Amino acid sequence: MNIQLRPYQQEAVEAFFAALPEHRRQLIVLPTGAGKTVVFGAIARRFYHEIDNTCPILVIAHRTELLDQAEQKIQYVWPGVFIGRIQAGRNDQLGEVLIASTQTLVAGRRIKRPGLIIYDECHHSRAEGALGVLERLGVFREDGPPLLGVTATPSRADRTELGDVFEHLTYERTILQMIMDGYLSDVRGIKVEVPGLNLGSIRTVGGDYNAKDLSYAMNIEEALDAVADAVLTYAPGRKALVFAVDVKHAHALAERFRTRGIACAAVDGSMKAEDRAAILRAFSENKMRLLVNCQILTEGYDQPDVDAVVIARPTRSQALYVQMVGRALRLHPNKTDALVLDLTGATEDKSLQTFARLMRTQRKERLKTVSLPAGKDEQAEDDLPMEQGETVIEWLSRIAQKQEKAAQVAQAINLFANRSRYRWQQVQDNFAICFEDSRWAYLYRDGDEYWPVLELNNEKFMPLHDRSLPLEYAQGIAEGFLQLLESKLIEKEADWRNAPMSTRQKYVLDKYRIQYDDTWTRGMASDALARAFARKRVRTLCKNFNATAWRQVLETDKGKLWLSQRIERFRSYAQSRHVQEA
């Protein structure tokens, strides 16, 4: 059973094949959290089955984490594909898909002629060694294999353009669009001034601040205190990634947080792999809520419950800034929004990247693609800059209210109804949600992944997919099912939530000895009861849902067919019910 692509992911796939006859070297730009690997996995499968199955698909990436992700997620959209790894001592060249380390290919490893080359995080492709690999593979020859590059950041920090590698920008979506459409978390940005810091006086190299000068400026006591104060003031209780300038700065910040009583550690590229893995595991298991890193978690790192990033490494590079911010943008059942703390200087540097500046830039680019009303110009959005602590959706709502003729923006705001809008309850490592008169759905943890699960009658449970998945994918499948039901009861912003608490709710709260007062709304009472009931239901889930047995059953074709037919019956039931109600 394949993962169902999101609408924009399917659009990207279709756009690639539509452009292929005319453009052999294509670029797709999708922000972190948009599922780039799923998109190019779907493209790889279709290319192999419909265009050329005599040659393997080659996927190139420059980091082990990216290769691991590709190997895992291609299987989600192409179950059973034979994947070979070409990295260091591994040289598995018999696969339908070959996943290769850029460094291994730069070192001279020879491989079969591929039918299609996919370059993950292709903003690195302009580096001299990587460019030589592409030339050797023949992508610049008329009879060479087509090339697809995917990235969240198409502009390199040194401003070298990718136009001499890729000839056609096939598909692009920005962070702003993804937030508006509900596929990424809403974000609020806050600027924090570092006393005495003058970024304008720091030398620049390759378009960004000189790392040595910046390290000196950010390692002074006042700057270290400013970062710690900002986290304690604006992000109490949030799970945060802090981006430091260098190794010295990373460990100095971690120590500063520890002296403030916050469990924290630092990771950097010089650490032993096992030590770094142990710290990342502790962070993922919430044994610490703050993690400082230096140039190591900007790409290929997925921790969806991170809901804050601290830019303690000021930058002029939009590419680097987008990678850092992207670590907090993924949806998660426990997330309300994400927070970006920008550390800025006392004297403004107009080239400094901040979240408000990034959103203004992306909105300005969007306005270029729509027809502006008469009398308006592209600077209209500057009349309402983002305010301190304002989320993207709040900002766009203010703009829409002021500019009544800006129908495109108003329509985009309405699309936010498609966002992850359900009130999940977390019980230890699992998530539960009640819908339709005491029916329940779950995200059940199985190792590092989750099963989307539906509760049936008599405390029986059925998965909604034929295998466990990363949390964000399991959440998407479960919410896609819930969306079929169109239940107003589980929406976060349903109107009934603001009504006074009902007599029935008071009775049940008293019955279960849940403390409340007369100021509670119906929504507050509902949440308290859902938390209480969810604990009981998850205990039953953990007792009755046998992940090992389901895994064994669903590895067979017969099991997959049974589950597919059962889910289809549920879908048909939901659709027929809506027709009857209409």
Short description:
By secondary structure, the protein is of the alpha/beta class. The protein contains 19 helices and 21 strands.
Commentary on this structure:
With 582 residues, the chain is an alpha/beta fold. It has three domains: 7-173, P-loop containing nucleotide triphosphate hydrolases (Rossmann fold, 3-Layer(aba) Sandwich), CATH 3.40.50.300; 182-415, P-loop containing nucleotide triphosphate hydrolases (Rossmann fold, 3-Layer(aba) Sandwich); 425-581, no CATH class. The protein has helices at 7-19, 36-50, 64-77, 102-106, 128-137, 175-180, 211-218, 221-234, 247-259, 273-284, 318-326, 355-367, 392-402, 407-414, 471-485, 503-511, 522-544, 547-554, 557-581; strands spanning 25-29, 57-61, 83-87, 90-91, 97-101, 116-120, 147-151, 168-172, 187-198, 204-205, 208-209, 240-243, 264-268, 290-294, 308-311, 338-347, 425-427, 430-435, 439-446, 449-455, 461-463. The longest helix is centred in the last third of the chain and has 25 residues, at 557-581. The two termini are 32 Å apart.
Q: Bin the strand percentage.
A: 15-25%
Helix content: 25-40%
- Look at the structure and give the mean pLDDT: 85
The radius of gyration computed from the alpha-carbon positions, rounded to a whole number of angstroms, is: 25 Å
Tell me the overall shape.
Answer: globular
Widest sheet: strand ordering: 4-3-5-2-6-7-1-8
pLDDT < 50 stretches: 156-160, 370-382, 405-420
Q: What's the CATH architecture name of the largest domain?
A: 3-Layer(aba) Sandwich
Assigned CATH class of the largest domain = Alpha Beta
Assembly state: single chain
Helical stretch count? 19
What is the name of the CATH superfamily of the largest domain? P-loop containing nucleotide triphosphate hydrolases
Secondary structure: number of strands: 21
* Main beta-sheet annotation: 8 strands, mixed
